[in-house]
Write a structure and sequence with these properties.
The complex is a heterodimer of chains A (171) and B (103).
Chain A: H1 4-26, H2 30-50, H3 54-79, H4 94-114, H5 116-119, H6 131-138, H7 147-168
Chain B: H1 5-25, H2 29-54, H3 60-90
The chains are: A mainly alpha (171), B mainly alpha (103).
């Protein structure tokens, strides 16, 4: 049995995610779209905190909500005049997109609800989620260690920095 | 009433559907990137929730999400750099009007 606060938190977060993700793709003004995306990312961070992954929630807030959304806002303000906001950003292929999205959601939703007894699982006991354990596995070379992807991601970030410099350089 | 695995998968599914809809219908490149972020985020939620409910002793889903966030950040930064560069050359970001590279 869950606590009432946890249930209320879940329903608020689910409502925010559903409403704001629909608004993200249907609003006309692109700056509002970025703002609704920010709300969705915050609600996702709340889900991570609810799952006891506090480190992951902090990363989500710092990298996604703090970094990527700011990048989006910069790019929007650099490429759009603030005066003429109300330009249409949808195309005429709206029906095709709606059919594709609804078809995908319907198929996946049918799959989910027909395997509902597989999905009706309770939250298990909290395992050891301290930052010490995370750091140990992140830099470990043992069987379930993640040192190789960690280094690969660092090389990827270096490549991304070099690529950004090359792209942004004036010729 | 208990919070089950299914109850976390439903908002994630709706988020993914919204991302697909936005990706197919928007014609502004930045709006397309925003829809892409929605899809990536819903996949992250699925990784975390499946890990927490089905394999609570392990941390593989959490690490996948961690790396997915890092890669998504790199990809977004690079894509926005390309978009701004395209805007500097062509003065527009609509994919219908950018036909210079079309064969």
């Amino acid at each position: 049995m869950e606590s009432v606060g946890n249930l209320i938190l879940y329903f608020v977060v689910a409502l925010v995610i559903i409403v704001c993700s629909v608004l993200t793709v249907t609003t006309r003004q692109i700056l509002r779209s970025a703002t609704y995306l920010l709300f969705v990312l915050f609600a996702t961070a709340v889900i991570y905190f609810q799952m006891d992954y506090a480190f992951l929630g902090a990363v989500q807030i710092a990298v996604y909500a703090g970094g990527i959304v700011v990048l989006f806002v910069f790019a929007i303000l650099l490429t759009h005049q603030p005066g003429k906001d109300a330009q249409r950003i949808e195309s005429s292929r709206r029906i095709l997109g709606a059919v594709a999205a609804l078809l995908g959601v319907a198929v996946c939703g049918y799959g989910l609800f027909s395997y509902a007894n597989f999905c009706h699982r309770q939250l298990a006991e909290v395992s050891d989620m301290s930052i010490e354990t995370i750091g140990h596995w992140l830099l470990s070379t043992e069987k379930f260690g993640y040192l190789l992807p960690f280094e690969a991601v660092s090389v990827l970030l270096l490549a991304c920095i070099i690529g950004g410099v090359v792209i942004a350089r004036r010729r | 009433m208990n919070l089950t695995l299914l109850m976390y998968l439903v908002p994630s599914l709706v988020m993914f559907g919204c991302g697909v809809y936005g990706f197919l219908t928007r014609k502004n490149m930045i709006a397309i990137m925003i829809s892409l972020e929605l899809m990536l985020n819903s996949v992250d939620i699925n990784f975390v929730v499946f890990n927490r409910y089905l394999f609570p002793g392990q941390m593989d889903g959490m690490f996948f999400t961690l790396f997915a966030i890092a890669i998504a950040a790199a990809e977004t930064a690079l894509a926005l750099a390309i978009i701004i560069n395209v805007f500097r050359v062509a003065r527009k970001v609509d994919i219908n009007e950018l036909t210079k590279l079309k064969f």
